[in-house]
Write a structure and sequence with these properties.
- By secondary structure, the protein is mainly α.
- The chain is built from two helices and two strands; from the N terminus they run ααββ.
- The protein has a two-stranded antiparallel ribbon.
- A hairpin with a 6-residue loop joins β1 and β2.
- α1 packs across α2.
- The protein is globular.
- The protein starts with a helix and ends with a strand.
Length: about 70
């Protein structure tokens, strides 16, 4: 049952980014990933616990093994 709870939480967290990017042309999954990653980056930057830390958004490509920094 624990795995289902985590899946539900994942969907709940990513859904706002998916809804915001649904109408954009191109790869919806990629747009959703980038929007959600930017949101998480901004939330961490706004957290006082991370004051003074450099927080960036990045994408790990499973096929190539490369990490790309996102704007």
């Amino acid at each position: 049952m624990r795995g289902l709870w985590h899946s539900g939480l994942l969907v709940e967290e990513i859904s706002p980014a998916a809804r915001r990017t649904r109408a954009l042309p191109g790869d919806w999954a990629e747009h959703t990933l980038r929007a959600h990653t930017a949101w998480v980056r901004d939330a961490i930057r706004a957290d006082p616990a991370f004051a003074g830390a450099t927080v960036v958004a990045a994408r790990f490509d499973l096929d190539s093994g490369l990490v790309a920094l996102l704007p």
